[in-house]
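The authors assume throughout that readers already know how a fold can be written as discrete tokens. The format is easy to grasp once an entry is in front of the reader. For illustration, here is how one protein appears when written out as sequence plus structure tokens:
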Amino acid sequence: MALAPDRTPVLVGVGQLCQRDVEPREALDPVSMMVEVARTAAEDARLDPGKLESLDRIVVPGVLGSGYTNAARRLAERLGAPGAEPVYLGTGGNGPQKALNRSARDVAAGRARWVLLAGAEALDTRQRARAAGVALDWSGGGALTPQDAEPPPSTPVEVRHRLMVPPLVYPLFENALRAWHGDDPETHRRRVGALLSRFTAVAAENPHAWFRTRRDPDEITRPGPSNRMVAFPYTKYMNAVLRVDQAAAVLLTSAGHARGLGIPSDRWVHWLGGGDAVEEPWALSERPCFFTSNGMARAFADTFAEARLQVEDVHAFDLYSCFPSAVLMACDTLGIALEDPRPLTVTGGLPYAGGPGNDYGTHAVAAMVKRLRADPGAVGMVSGLGWYFSKHSAGLYSTLPPMDLPAASERARPAAPEPVAVAERAEGPGRLETYTVLHDRKGAPELGIAVGRLSDARRFLAFVDGDAEVLRSLEESEGVGRTGRVRPDGDVNRIALD
């Protein structure tokens, strides 16, 4: 279907903020940070910030650790746009891109005209305020239920085996991916180190990055005094950094409205298409394997189908990078190598540019807009990820408009994989599918977590029996495929490796 030129969705203004070294009593709260970046985005669009009063939708990703029940409504009030529909997103790094996909389709259909996506985190200020005994009054806005209700991210048996926070879950995917690719631990470490070193080089040139420090591969992947091992194979420098004060904003409208506002066309970056999906099965412990993602594959395929493009048409990516396995899985899904010469991040990634809670995706899009304006005609792809490869979103952008209206894909859906049966109380011989080793604050191995199959193909979760030497053996040589005997111990399982 041909797209009416005036209905073409365009991003017209972006803003970013990095708040550093401010006394907690003087620091901007997250909503005030959003006000700043919204005004910056208006100025970037060559508009008077007063034009924000006519916004008809304001979307805000959930703010971590705050008392806000509806930050979107508070932001609307502060911007003098009380008539704007407030949309407060839930938890998930896919949220900003998913919201842009939804809002862009609404703009194309005439259901929305003038949309602001803005988010912020001030976890660094919160930590410093707590240490100094300073009370922060960040609350209010009135209650609003976040969009898209979903099941809990972890099942009870996963929680009992410590698999309920991302730093302890993503290493399972990393080790499974390494084994699937047939790389030994040292080869894999070198490949990932080279990838992340490239990310730090991008962050070093990003004025809005939290850490603007180039690091070589060994510095990133080898444990040291300032870079302890967290959960094998991830050191501290391989984990997303949450303790940041950062904000970003993106303004979306139609080409016709942008023209009416007098926004120069050289500020326009077109949304070409997007895709969103959830992982099936949702529960981590019920998935068929840990080295592929059917949800990511569906989201990416839908994105390219809507935009009528191929991965070869993309000039720059920003692949969600909370942990290395997120980038590895995305590259596998796209069919590109980790060593692909095209940029895989335009910000520097969550461990280096910063991982501001649910809002990293807004920074990624803002950075992509800047890059595409500097390279007219190029195509950029941004991806987002929620929980444990549980929620997926992606979008394609360019200064060139789409020829046709991107419409929801009607492609045939493959049948969802059958959930794997989980033995909550497991007993008998078992084989490891993946695993990780948790380390204490001093860097010593303290707990092994194994995921595997019993002889009857049921999945088990278990803690690894043994001392530090046993745990180190899982780090020094391949543990995927190792066998052992599983037994229940209270409300958890344990495995004694052969």
